[in-house]
Design goal:
It contains 17 helices and no strands. By secondary structure, the protein is an all-alpha fold.
Length: 398
């Protein structure tokens, strides 16, 4: 018997489009991180760059969630993709013309993060529209499989192209990947059987969003815990350029392999969740994921061989992907149908705390070294898991 998700042609189109989008996103992060590290020789500045990349999630991701409850999500996905291509074109011009100063790279990084912040809540809400609440976990699992597969290809290819031909050619390749994503999004046919038929004006949407955050305790708890895990878990990518350049002397190609390991872990976790057509006890599983996230971070801290670092990154990425899938599904299931886009906006607001994590990681690497920084964050994640386990019974029961 075929998987129920494969029966929906638009869901397949969405998955392919998000896969090509993933190629561009991972490649862009690699290029930004390596450019900034080569300009400054400092992980602290890489943390600043990654912080600027993610800071706009709190504002633009939230607004995208609100707008996606007002307009056709297919149109919104298409328009976001166009903006990504335009910004990548500006990146190509800056790098190829030799204008790649630190401040200009940081400015383009902020713009890129602002545009990409809008993509995540819209695609996740549209996935729910197509497959409904019954299949939301497996739908997000398959969607993440597409994204992580794209990231795996993007990481490997971008690392090789950067090493052989430079950043400008690599960025042109990323523009091509987003052009393919644009084609898939343009071919989307339906709004989805579970799409809300209620489309209130933006002002009313915003008012309902604020009221829901104030009154929905489960949603608020999910936002707080998601933000904490984002700060102390997902900030590990700030350490990757220094890990590749200094601990293993592996250069751009080695950095590509580290990012590829991250993508591979995401693929494995996505495949597992895709197979879970109907998943219960999401809250308990999420607590286990937080614990495993912290432990795998500590393994990366102590990895002294390149292959061990790759294995640790696979585990970290599996937990990061599992965290994304579980929190996105629980957030959407915790609100009425017409508020799902705004619920994903609240999720994006939590993800907007990422700059604190990247700044914190960059500072800790400078102050205590790679191992000390990663060990500290792993410890905080384990402590977070304990707090959720002991003090948040309502979250455990989701």
């Amino acid at each position: 018997m075929s998987h129920p998700l494969l029966a929906n042609a638009d869901f397949i189109r969405l998955t392919f489009g998000c896969g090509f989008n993933g190629v561009g996103r991972i490649g862009e992060q690699m290029i930004i991180g390596l450019l900034v590290f080569k300009l400054t020789a400092s992980s602290e500045w890489v943390g600043v760059a990654m912080g600027l990349y993610f800071v706009s999630f709190a504002v633009f991701g939230t607004m995208a969630g609100i707008i996606s409850d007002w307009m056709d999500r297919r149109v919104l996905l298409f328009r976001i993709e166009v903006l990504i291509i335009v910004n990548l074109g500006a990146f190509v011009a800056v790098v190829s013309l030799g204008w790649a100063s630190l401040w200009l790279i940081l400015a383009l990084t902020f713009v890129s993060g602002a545009i990409r912040a809008m993509h995540h809540p819209v695609r996740s809400s549209y996935a729910y529209d197509l497959r409904g609440g019954q299949h939301v976990v497996s739908a997000l699992g398959l969607l993440n499989f597409g994204v992580r597969s794209g990231q795996l290809i993007g990481a490997l290819v971008t690392g090789v192209v950067m090493a052989e031909f430079g950043g400008a050619v690599a960025l042109l390749g990323l523009m091509g990947a987003h052009g393919l994503a644009l084609g898939w999004f343009f071919s989307l046919k339906t709004t989805g059987a579970s799409a809300s038929q209620t489309h209130a004006p933006i002002r009313e949407n915003l008012k309902e969003y604020v009221e829901e955050l104030r009154s929905n305790r489960i949603l608020l708890m999910l936002v707080v815990v998601t933000a904490t895990v984002e700060i102390f878990g997902f900030s590990f990518i700030t350490a990757l350029p220094e890990l590749a350049e200094r601990r293993f002397d592996a250069g751009a190609d080695g950095l590509g392999h580290l990012y590829a390991a991250r993508a591979l872990g995401g693929i494995l976790a996505s495949l597992i969740f895709t197979s879970l057509v109907s998943l219960k006890k999401r809250g308990r599983l999420y607590i286990g994921v937080i614990f495993a996230f912290g432990i795998s971070m500590m393994l990366l801290a102590e990895a002294r061989f390149f292959w061990l670092a790759l294995m640790a990154l696979v585990l970290i990425a599996m937990m990061a992907t599992a965290s994304d899938i579980l929190t996105q599904s629980m957030v959407q299931l915790s609100v009425p149908n017409h508020l799902r886009g705004r619920a994903m906006g609240a999720w994006a607001f939590a993800i907007g705390s990422a700059p604190l994590g990247h700044l914190e990681m960059g500072y800790l690497v400078v102050a205590f070294g790679l191992s000390g920084a990663l060990l500290a964050n792993g410890f905080v994640l384990i402590a977070t898991g304990l707090v959720v386990l002991l003090a948040m019974p309502r979250l455990r029961k989701l």
